[in-house]
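Field reference: sequence -> structure
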Amino acid sequence: MIYKDDQASIKGFLEDTSNLKSGHTPGVFFPETVDDLSELLKGAITEHRRFTIAGNGTGTTGGRIPLGDYVISMQKFDRIGEPVLYASDKAYMTVQSGALLDTIQKKAEQSGWFYPPDPTEKLCFIGSTIANNSSGARSFKYGATRKHISRILAILPQGDVLDLSRGSCMADKNGIFRLSLPLAGEIAFQRPQYSMPETSKHNAGYFSEEGMDLIDLFIGSEGTLCIIAEADLMLIPLPKTVISSLVYFRDLDDLFRFTRLLQDREHACSPRAIEFFDKNSLAFLAEKYPEVPAGSEGAIFFEQETTPDTEENDLEKLLEEMKACNAMIDQSWMALDRYDQAKLREFRHTLPLLVNEWLSKQQESKISTDMAVPERRFRELFDFYRSTCEQHGFVYIIFGHIGNGHVHLNILPRNREEFLQAKSLYREFIGKALALGGTLSAEHGIGKLKAEYLVEMYHESGIREMARIKKCLDPFLVLNIGNIIPAAYLETETH
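Structure field:
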């Protein structure tokens, strides 16, 4: 196992895309085997070490940034197995946690299989996507990562290696999990008793539901309860054909009506992704794509899986829906082959690049939301975002996963005063989303940056429930301290 403590090696582990600047660490370990990981954790108490687990630095909440703890880098855990067939239409692939999502998806597709989770960032480690229960555009149809994991190999905080398959450890009727471990001994703890929000995307705090599976507690726990060393990913047959579309609208009411039609599971179209761009997002994109039509109030991007036999009929139904909702049909973009679909994906992913380019000329960083609400309450949240920003004269964009009632508001401050105003308003945005039955985080997680806000969602009682579970599995507070649970609750909470 490699260990590095020179500043050149450490520097890259003190940053991610969160803009958190306070990271520091004595050194970085690069384990190569499960035994390496187990030995590091076994020796943590006698060596007086705590650890922060590092993915590939693509996170937005500071989760991998150490605040004085040692770092465990997972980059050596990069092996990817071959797809293994276990039913005519099902396969699984065993991967180590440091393998890149992009590499995994490409390898699956080469064998005719499909791994549905689709976070925007393709260079993330697969283990990080599991620890974060990552989602993305295709979550509208397929849900988040949790639904596509059948097994994990978890290294627990005292060094125990737990090979955990879905269905092998369930909460009893009282919500109690029981484990018998070689090192930690007998452990029993109750699942959190709070309720999940009624949103189709949610990634804030520990998961809980009646009769739940232990694997679902670890998924989304952001490395606070275990280190995920490897996992079995569930694969489905690769869709034969996909229709991709970017549909422009002159009127937001028409756009929202079109969105509701697409969301209707019983309706003609059955999309796997429904994404939104507001007129300010389109204005940024028009700098590079002059074909973006003037006068558009917004656009909907969506993908629909089809087959060569049904594609023509599906296209006719789609055009009927567009006409019924007064879409700008002549200016809209239909991508029916791989080349055009790649160009359309490039269009979608260009927006954050253009925003970052604009921000590089400013002195302040953006303020970005990740809240989601039940789909029926989304318009109210959207109107609140927009009216608040207009009242303050902010430069802003609203874009993202409208199909799941989840978009990102990015406020782009031009000076310190606007930055402070926007940061103050962030709590108002959280309060509005929670009042509408929503979640603090739909996909980016909590990490260190949002831990203080989690109290507003679960109240002190809910945070103390998380702290109780954390200290049952990690009594010496070895793993990822500061992520999800504010440190003060761990210092005072007993198990």
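Note: The chain has a mean pLDDT of 93.
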